[in-house]
Amino acid sequence: MIPDWLLTTLVRAFAVGTPLLWAALGEIYAERSGVVNLGVEGMMILGAFFAFAVAHTTGEPVIGLLAAAAAGGVAASLHAFVAVTLRGNQYVSGLALAMLGLGLAGVLGRGWEGIPLENALPEISPLNVMGLLLAAVLWFLLYHTRVGLIIRSTGEFPAAVNTVGTSVTLVRYACVILGGLLAGVAGGFLSVAYRPSWTEGMTGGMGWIAIAIAIFAGWDPLKAVWGALLFGALFFLSFRLQTWIAPEILRMMPFAFTILVLAATARSRHGQAAPDALGIPYESEQR
Q1: What does the pLDDT look like over 162-172, one tens digit per residue?
Q2: What letter does residue 113 receive in the DSSP assignment?
Q3: What range defines the domain where residue 64 resides?
Q4: Would residue 9 count as lying in a domain?
Q5: CATH number reported for the structural domain that contains residue 119 in this entry
Q6: In this structure, is residue 286 part of a structural domain?
Q7: pTM for the full predicted model
Q8: 47 near 209, Cβ under 8 Å?
Q9: For residues 44 and 47, what is the distance between their CA atoms, to the nearest angstrom?
Q10: Distance CA 166, CA 71 (A)
Q11: Which of 55, 26, 57, 31 lies closest to 43 in space, CA to CA?
Q12: Cα 97 vs. chain centroid, distance in angstroms?
């Protein structure tokens, strides 16, 4: 017999972990192709705003989620252009995208705060299950198909991919934009299901934790499921325990634990190394 408090924690971890999982899966594919995208927070907040605005206007939260995916994909394409086509610094471009997304969503969202969303999706919906199925599909695609081999090779040794006639640029664009689509859906889930409303900054740092989950999982989609559930539980407990522990300390808990996990992962001999070409522009095709 599972105690009520434990069952509640597991259900809430599943709900909160869903947006973390979607965003982390997208980042895994981007980084597997060799592109770091630190703009996940910006893509998520844009997805959250557009999902809410479209869902409120149309009365259809599913259409809102499609709009969220589109917003995340467009934002990611900007990063791909800078990082892949212009061969700019991926870390600077990602940070700029994060700030741009937060600022743009804040400006566009003025006047939308405090408006209730009717026909919101439940916290536990097909979208939660789809996240688990997506993790399994992306894992199979990455490790058991030729497409996955090309993606992994692009992140490890892009010159070899180019040699066999596959465009490194195309692979990296596809993976970065996929990451944006998934991050947009992750943000959209927050505003049309988890907390059906729009609030400036409502992602609350989840994008950064999604990046950490990608690393913690060793860039493995299936392992990201456990990371998302773990941090989902931490987010829930950070609110549940406010009766006994100062809220300021609890709000720091998911982020402090993120640092500890990443430090432990970096020191572990069994942790998977990052793709060799991660963060390194590939120039051969563009000369």
Answers
A1: 999 999 999 99
A2: T
A3: 14-270
A4: no
A5: 1.10.3470.10
A6: no
A7: 0.91
A8: no
A9: 5
A10: 28
A11: 26
A12: 14
